[in-house]
Amino acid sequence: MRIHFEHVLCTVCRADDCLPIAVGEDFEYRTSDEEFMAVQCRRCRMVYLNPRPDAQGIEHSYPANYHAFQFNESDFGLVYRVRQRLEARRLLRWCRGLPEHAKILDIGCGDGFHLELLQRFGKPTWSIEGIDSDPRAAEGAKRRGIQIKQGSVEEVGFEQKSFDLIFMIMTIEHVSDPLAMLQCVSTLLKPGGRLIIVTDNTDSPDFRIFGNRHWGGYHFPRHLYLFNRQNLGELCQRAGLATVSVRTALSPVNWTYSLRNWIQDWKGPNWIVKRISLESPIALTIFTLVDLPLSLIGLGAILHGEFVKEKSE
Amino acid sequence: MIKPTNELPIAILGGGIAGLTAALHLKNHSVPFVLFESSDAVAGLMKSERDEEGFTYDCGVHFLTNRLAAAIGMSRDCQPMARYGETVHLRGRCYAYPLGLLASPKYLSSALIGKSKSLFASTASTAREYYSSQYGSRLSEEIAIPLTEAWSGANGDEVAAAVGQKFSTGLGRMMMLRTAAKMTNRVIGIGYASTIVESTNSWHVYPQGGISSVCHRIAEKVEENVRLNCNVEQIDVENERVQSIIVNGKPLPVAGVISTAPVHVLPKLVRGTNALAGLEKFEYRAMIFVNLKLNGPSGLTDVVTWVPERDYPFFRLSDIGMGLPWLVPNGKSQVTCDIGCKVGDSHWNMNDSELTKLCIDSLERMIPGIGKRACGSRVVRVPLAYPIFKVEYESKRKSWEQTTGVDGLLSVGRNGEFAHLLMEDVFWRTRWKVSEFLKNSL
């Protein structure tokens, strides 16, 4: 399929003043033989795909076996079980202080991995909903026995000012207009309601080392906008959401993908490539140990942002 | 992004890569514009032709990277270059560049002496001073200066040091990039972009349909605003601000002008200001590209061979098929001989068969028997090929790099900026300059 490209502006400062910083391929799924370009805004350092595939091209870049549509125990084994425990702890930490009948929404919920954890470990009185734009995510969620809404959050018509907590876990980087989505999220939150964003960190050592081609966070061409602490906070502020905190956190995923992409691209031995994957507990353990000290000094591979809809809004 | 408030269009002069890049940038920002191209096709110096036998002819050698192809959204239409390397032909021997030269004790000692002297040398103002301080006198006098003189037509003392400073990739960096090239089996670009950082992840690719397809791909996106066979005859300036142009005899009010015209031509078009005085002195070098078609391999050792000895008519030879095999038919090769000249000089006035004979006779000294394998030629003449960086107008050139001095007038591209820019430089610099132009000048 021939991909048609469109030109985009920086989502934070709406400028078109960028430097090309990386060219890469769809290393993980090989959905296309195109090369894609990541640029960095010279004003706010936002990293984004430009030119980027049009809506049809983006849709084409999510294959049926995309990991977010079917992250399950049978394929990922020990990795799945460990991640379940870690993610459940993280989620419950963010849920502290929620009222008895809190409403929670997970935007870009994929196959409902996090929703399932919230249902299992959260309070039974909580109302938990999920939405994803891809119908295959809804199918994946159905397999877990979870109902989610399919479509874009702007169009589905959730009740305004109704949610106490909204999650966007590894979602915002996939969104074609993050500001518009955050503005919509802002209208859905109750005054004092919180938004949790988890996304890749462009102020991390893995980005500095691999950022001119192989960085896993590019996930070419599916990650359209990539953030650091400053520009994530700035964008949320423009959408009417005040920053509570933006911290970096530990994640072995981008390290694993980056190294794998590099070895594969430089025609390294296949037996090594196969051993560096998200299914490999050894690779994930090694890179967890690499990223652990980095996350302790604020240079972790991913960002955890907590934002609040101010009561005066 | 600031748009022209009066909704008048911006006129773009010239449909080469710079003009088209400017047009696409304006379109992306919904700024009204019209691109005027005086000939009947876009592409300018990036035109390419394919003959009935399957040989492709460009105007000289063009270097496109995967990075630029991705920026234009045409990486799928490009193939990686098969191989690339440069050699220097000197006194009947070929030295690989740069390691082969540095393996020779006389050139190595020259380079080391030059480098150590450069630590204490004052800033060079001429090409001769620059090369001598960088490479030592032997490498400078035997290779760098003769090549610069053949390429520019000016003496090494007349040419400004900036000509060398443009493309200086340090030896350490070059070695790192070359090692990466060996490991990845890619032709990593070294010394072919000065605006954007060279990287192990930027390598040479080439469009299947010849280099002109780069321009055609951009032109597809702006074609409704492209006017072919339209000659802009005059640019009217009042109070140091562009007001209107005259195209094919008709006046047209404009918000501004983005020109890719050679800078010595521009003052002849602009009326109502003295800001461009002095530019008419700027000179460009003409080039003749003699494309020799050969049966079998060319016999050259690498894709590019530099020929600094003055008794050869050409200073550079390129074996296109060695690097880009799909541009020549199977079992054939194509050698392009680059001859620097002046419009109207003895080389320029030779007819095609005289030039072909001259090149073949000279090549016989390098590759005996090559004449018997010659099976035709195509000669391409380019009257304005490269800017000549002369010391006499270097200060004016530097101020020209900053501004044209006229509100609403921007000059872009290799000829428009009067700078030795390569394709990727032209693309990015044009985008940045047009952004600044929209912000500050309209």
SSE layout:
The complex is a heterodimer of chains A (313) and B (442).
Chain A: E1 5-6, E2 18-24, E3 36-41, E4 47-49, E5 52-53, H1 55-60, H2 73-94, E6 103-107, H3 113-121, E7 127-132, H4 135-143, E8 149-150, H5 153-156, E9 163-169, H6 178-188, E10 189-200, H7 205-210, E11 225-226, H8 229-238, E12 241-249, H9 253-265, H10 270-275, H11 281-296, E13 302-309
Parallel strand pairs in A: 6-7, 6-9, 7-8, 9-10
Antiparallel strand pairs in A: 1-5, 2-3, 3-4, 4-11, 10-13, 12-13
Helix pairs in contact in A: 2-3
Chain B: E1 10-13, H1 17-28, E2 33-36, E3 48-50, E4 56-58, E5 64-65, H2 66-72, E6 78-80, E7 86-90, E8 93-96, H3 99-102, H4 105-118, H5 127-152, H6 162-165, H7 171-184, E9 204-207, H8 212-222, E10 226-227, E11 232-238, E12 241-247, E13 250-253, E14 256-259, H9 266-269, E15 270-271, E16 283-295, E17 304-306, E18 316-319, H10 320-323, E19 332-341, H11 346-349, H12 352-366, H13 370-373, E20 374-388, H14 394-402, E21 409-411, H15 413-417, H16 423-440
Parallel strand pairs in B: 1-2, 1-14, 2-10, 7-17, 11-15, 14-21
Antiparallel strand pairs in B: 3-4, 5-9, 6-9, 7-8, 11-12, 12-13, 16-19, 16-20, 17-18, 18-19
Helix pairs in contact in B: 1-8, 1-16, 4-5
Q: Could you please describe the fold and organization of this structure?
A:
The complex is a heterodimer of chains A (313) and B (442). The model of chain A has no long low-confidence stretch (mean pLDDT 93). Chain A contains eleven helices and 13 strands. Chain A has helices at residues 55-60, 73-94, 113-121, 135-143, 153-156, 178-188, 205-210, 229-238, 253-265, 270-275, 281-296; strands at residues 5-6, 18-24, 36-41, 47-49, 52-53, 103-107, 127-132, 149-150, 163-169, 189-200, 225-226, 241-249, 302-309. Chain B is of the alpha/beta class and 442 residues long. Chain B has three domains: 10-45 and 212-282 and 390-440, 3-Layer(bba) Sandwich (FAD/NAD(P)-binding domain); 97-186, Orthogonal Bundle (protoporphyrinogen ix oxidase, domain 3), CATH 1.10.3110; 284-388, Protoporphyrinogen oxidase, mitochondrial, domain 2 (Polyamine Oxidase, Chain A, domain 2, Alpha-Beta Complex), CATH 3.90.660.20. Helix content of chain B is 35%, strand content 24%. Chain B has helices at 17-28, 66-72, 99-102, 105-118, 127-152, 162-165, 171-184, 212-222, 266-269, 320-323, 346-349, 352-366, 370-373, 394-402, 413-417, 423-440; strands at residues 10-13, 33-36, 48-50, 56-58, 64-65, 78-80, 86-90, 93-96, 204-207, 226-227, 232-238, 241-247, 250-253, 256-259, 270-271, 283-295, 304-306, 316-319, 332-341, 374-388, 409-411. Chain B has a seven-stranded mixed sheet. A five-stranded parallel sheet of chain B has the order 10-2-1-14-21. In chain B, strands 13-12-11-15 form a four-stranded mixed sheet. The A-B interface holds A 2-5, 7, 14-17, 19-20, 22-24, 32-37, 51, 212-213, 265-267 and B 1, 24-25, 28-29, 66-67, 69-71, 73, 75-76, 183-185, 196, 199-202, 428, 431-432, 435.
